[in-house]
Amino acid sequence: MSKPKGFEKPVGVRDYLPRATKRLRRIERGVLDCMARWGYETIKTPTIEYYDTVGIASSTSDRKLFKLLNNRGQTLVLRSDLTAPIARVASSLLREEPLPLRLSYHANVFRAIEEEAGREAEFFQTGVELIGDRSPEADAEVVALAIASLQAAGVKTFKFALGHVGFLNGLFDEALPGRSEDQKALKERLLHRDYVGFREAAESLGLNREQQEELEGILRLRGGREVCDQAAGLSRHPLALESLRHLCSVWEALDDYGVSEHVLIDLTMIGDFSYYTGMVFEGYAAELGFPVCSGGRYDNLLRQFGRDVPATGFALKTNRILDGVEDPSPEEELPVLIVYDAARRAEALAEAGRLRTEGQAAVTRLANETGESAEAGDGGRYARVLLFTGENAPASRG
Amino acid sequence: MGEVLKVAMPKGRIYKKASQLFREAGIFIPDDVDDSRRLVIPIPEANMEFIMAKPVDVPTYVEYGVADIGIVGKDVLLEENRDVYELLDLGIARCRMSVIALPDWKPGIHLRVATKYPNVATRYFREQGEQVEVIKLNGSIELAPLIGLADRIVDMVETGQTLKDNGLVERESIFGITSRLIANRVSYRMKNNEIQELCDRLEKVMPGAVKS
């Protein structure tokens, strides 16, 4: 590769200019405030972590982790999500805190990417973790909060899809007892959204016609509460039935939250099955081609840090929301410009100080000797101009 | 009536077969769509909008969500490796991906393979335990072994006539190809009813469909 040109930056990272930064902060603040109203406290964790702890525990595949070496030869990673770092904190610094813990975060995360297509090397996540509660109530709370958070971010039309890893594990285990490789092959196909491949795999497994139809039937299991009942007829496996009961309770709680109209049950939703252990969900906004939210239950993660407690949570992809949300207030709050000459500087700076205390942004500038017009070249950048020059009383222009 | 579905349609060979399949499924598609030079064609009768795309670009439009669904060959899907739902095997435009060479081919010192599908070719030879140099070409792949650019090629074979005309033989078939219906991850949720209804209608008329 040739030497980069001065204006270039690495592939997959972005600059946020003042206008975009302002909007991003508005979204971030809106979402974190919303989470705070649900009792979630914000924490911050470091950008770098050890590969052997947080790196291994994270759901990000090894080849997508940014790895660094420190001067002792230890491998470090740039955090790829906040879930694993928060699991570390909850198992160490917050070990004595009573459960459940409700924590929120907003942070940049890093992924080593291979190609383009919405695949960013650095992006922003805003999310929560609810640690120490394995009930359907807890899962419903994080889904309802995800919905409230999207609304707080200004997203108007959206949908959430809800699935359960346990249902598929139970169903496949019943259809293919002891054939873990074949079960894995089916799950891989669902994970890659390859329904054609799933049907082909189901046909090639040497099952009887009825079993094969049952497996293919799950591709149609999408909809509301009724999906749980339909699915219950597909399996007698205790794990599958237990998972459906759980999912059903989550749905009923969401109904009581008054948000079930936004939620679709999809039993082919699988998430990363080596990581998620229960309910999984994704959020989609009408204006955006990529999901804006993902989450689920990961009851085995904290055990890796020495505190065996269940947990559930989600992350919003905050910068994607930025691409899809219209700017709610196009008219910006402009600063006041104060122009002064040397003799009246103290007076001018005092006025600027007063305005700033009131919350009004103020910019100060020494007038040049030719007595230039204060507005020259400043078209539209300032709300108004105050002159502290010569013997004039402060004059307001603009 | 539901929302308008934006459909990325591959121009050329597959379009004729796909639009025929849509008609058999009872979806109104005007006759002259592919003769027109227009790239975006509203079809209000079907509540759709066709985006006429180069076949290899169809998965890209769908992944980014500028098209809700698309029709594309399995060859392109395997080469492009885009994150989309692969909903249906439409069973049309059937052909295969093959390794092709001159009849007297023997492994030489430098193994070179020319293809329009570098990812597919690299993956295949890797699985076979062969390390080869893959050369990307954009058309007339059959030329490569004839003029000594590569000793083998990986390409799509439909009838095999072009191979015969050029004195080439098919050595191995890598995988079978048909056209697939794909969907964007978000559209699949946001326009689920529309997409599911289309799938149901297509499934009844797809070649090889079990008529119930």
TrEMBL record, chain A:
<dbReference type="GO" id="GO:0016757">
    <property type="term" value="F:glycosyltransferase activity"/>
</dbReference>
<dbReference type="InterPro" id="IPR004516">
    <property type="entry name" value="HisRS/HisZ"/>
</dbReference>
<keyword id="KW-0028">Amino-acid biosynthesis</keyword>
<comment type="subunit">
    <text>Heteromultimer composed of HisG and HisZ subunits.</text>
</comment>
<dbReference type="Pfam" id="PF13393">
    <property type="entry name" value="tRNA-synt_His"/>
</dbReference>
<comment type="similarity">
    <text>Belongs to the class-II aminoacyl-tRNA synthetase family. HisZ subfamily.</text>
</comment>
<feature type="domain" description="Aminoacyl-transfer RNA synthetases class-II family profile">
    <location>
        <begin position="25"/>
        <end position="289"/>
    </location>
</feature>
<dbReference type="InterPro" id="IPR041715">
    <property type="entry name" value="HisRS-like_core"/>
</dbReference>
<dbReference type="InterPro" id="IPR045864">
    <property type="entry name" value="aa-tRNA-synth_II/BPL/LPL"/>
</dbReference>
<keyword id="KW-0368">Histidine biosynthesis</keyword>
<dbReference type="InterPro" id="IPR006195">
    <property type="entry name" value="aa-tRNA-synth_II"/>
</dbReference>
<keyword id="KW-0328">Glycosyltransferase</keyword>
<keyword id="KW-0963">Cytoplasm</keyword>
<comment type="pathway">
    <text>Amino-acid biosynthesis; L-histidine biosynthesis; L-histidine from 5-phospho-alpha-D-ribose 1-diphosphate: step 1/9.</text>
</comment>
<dbReference type="InterPro" id="IPR004517">
    <property type="entry name" value="HisZ"/>
</dbReference>
<comment type="function">
    <text>Required for the first step of histidine biosynthesis. May allow the feedback regulation of ATP phosphoribosyltransferase activity by histidine.</text>
</comment>
<protein>
    <recommendedName>
        <fullName>ATP phosphoribosyltransferase regulatory subunit</fullName>
    </recommendedName>
</protein>
<keyword id="KW-0808">Transferase</keyword>
UniProtKB/TrEMBL annotation, chain B:
<keyword id="KW-0028">Amino-acid biosynthesis</keyword>
<protein>
    <recommendedName>
        <fullName>ATP phosphoribosyltransferase</fullName>
        <ecNumber>2.4.2.17</ecNumber>
    </recommendedName>
</protein>
<keyword id="KW-0808">Transferase</keyword>
<dbReference type="InterPro" id="IPR024893">
    <property type="entry name" value="ATP_PRibTrfase_HisG_short"/>
</dbReference>
<feature type="domain" description="ATP phosphoribosyltransferase catalytic">
    <location>
        <begin position="54"/>
        <end position="203"/>
    </location>
</feature>
<dbReference type="Pfam" id="PF01634">
    <property type="entry name" value="HisG"/>
</dbReference>
<keyword id="KW-0368">Histidine biosynthesis</keyword>
<comment type="pathway">
    <text>Amino-acid biosynthesis; L-histidine biosynthesis; L-histidine from 5-phospho-alpha-D-ribose 1-diphosphate: step 1/9.</text>
</comment>
<keyword id="KW-0963">Cytoplasm</keyword>
<comment type="function">
    <text>Catalyzes the condensation of ATP and 5-phosphoribose 1-diphosphate to form N'-(5'-phosphoribosyl)-ATP (PR-ATP). Has a crucial role in the pathway because the rate of histidine biosynthesis seems to be controlled primarily by regulation of HisG enzymatic activity.</text>
</comment>
<dbReference type="InterPro" id="IPR013820">
    <property type="entry name" value="ATP_PRibTrfase_cat"/>
</dbReference>
<dbReference type="InterPro" id="IPR001348">
    <property type="entry name" value="ATP_PRibTrfase_HisG"/>
</dbReference>
<keyword id="KW-0328">Glycosyltransferase</keyword>
<comment type="similarity">
    <text>Belongs to the ATP phosphoribosyltransferase family. Short subfamily.</text>
</comment>
<keyword id="KW-0547">Nucleotide-binding</keyword>
<keyword id="KW-0067">ATP-binding</keyword>
<comment type="subunit">
    <text>Heteromultimer composed of HisG and HisZ subunits.</text>
</comment>
<dbReference type="GO" id="GO:0003879">
    <property type="term" value="F:ATP phosphoribosyltransferase activity"/>
</dbReference>
